[in-house]
């Protein structure tokens, strides 16, 4: 087995130079020259490490980056903004995933209790805003239950919603979370790239939109349209954005569609030939430059 050697750059430190003698003294001069020689050697070493003596400049640098994907299919109500979510971190160096969280009081039933159903009635918000796609926990809520759509009430607040799993739950405290924020620990200019696998089961071509939000605000000019061909076809959409972020700021990918027949499709690992699973969404955020002075 090959041995992998990891090298790190060690920043040079300015030497504490010897105090000069009143009169010329060879021993002092030799000591001073030796201190400077060691320091200059350290500068040479780190410069070669940065620029690369073997035409591989920058190979020891560790800049901020993150790579994320989602292993579930994602849906959206027609003509409704929906955030893209992620459940897996592939690689990360001071770029991470963050979540929106809401705590509220509600019931889940068929809309005319008693009886199991998919109607979530929210009577009070304790904190946060309810996002479509949130996973719900609390009490005996069925694992994996998600918010699918809102049918009435204040957007993201009190009102009626549809959830993904039929059940009957009396009034209880519910927590909703959706992991969608790509957070930069360090300030800088970043390159966000993504690809999303759209699936259309309609008998006609359909349209989807994808755009960028920065700290909850739409980025002007970031929207792009995707035409998804008819008949269970898959279309991979992907492009890149340059975005400036201050410390702890985040970006998100949002999408919408004119038809509920369009989804972001996950596919399990397959055979003949053997090949890995297909993520519904993959996104990377890479550091490009420090912010302009």
What does this structure look like?
By secondary structure, this protein is mostly beta strands. The chain folds into three domains: 20-59, no CATH class; 65-94 and 185-289, Sandwich (Jelly Rolls), CATH 2.60.120; 99-178. The protein is built from one helix and 18 strands. The protein has one helix at residues 26-51; strands at residues 65-70, 74-75, 82-83, 88-93, 95-109, 117-127, 135-137, 147-153, 159-167, 169-184, 188-200, 206-214, 217-218, 224-228, 233-245, 250-257, 262-264, 281-289. Strands 3, 5, 6, 7, 8, 9, 10, 12, 13, 14 and 16 form an eleven-stranded antiparallel sheet that branches. Strand 5 and strand 6 form a beta hairpin. The longest helix has 26 residues, at 26-51. It starts with 25 loop residues before the first helix and ends with a strand. The model is unreliable at 1-5 (pLDDT under 50).
Query: CATH class of the largest domain, anyone?
Result: Mainly Beta
User: What is the fold-level CATH name, i.e. the topology of the largest domain?
Assistant: Jelly Rolls
Oligomeric category:
single chain
Q: What does the main sheet amount to?
A: 11 strands, antiparallel
Radius of gyration of CA atoms, rounded to a whole number? 27 Å
Strand-residue proportion = over 45%
Q: Helix amount, in percent? A: under 10%
Average pLDDT confidence is 92
Please trace the helix and strand order, writing H or E for each element: HEEEEEEEEEEEEEEEEEE
Q: Which term fits the overall shape?
A: elongated
Distance between the termini: 48 Å
Please count the helical segments. Answer: 1
Number of domains: 3
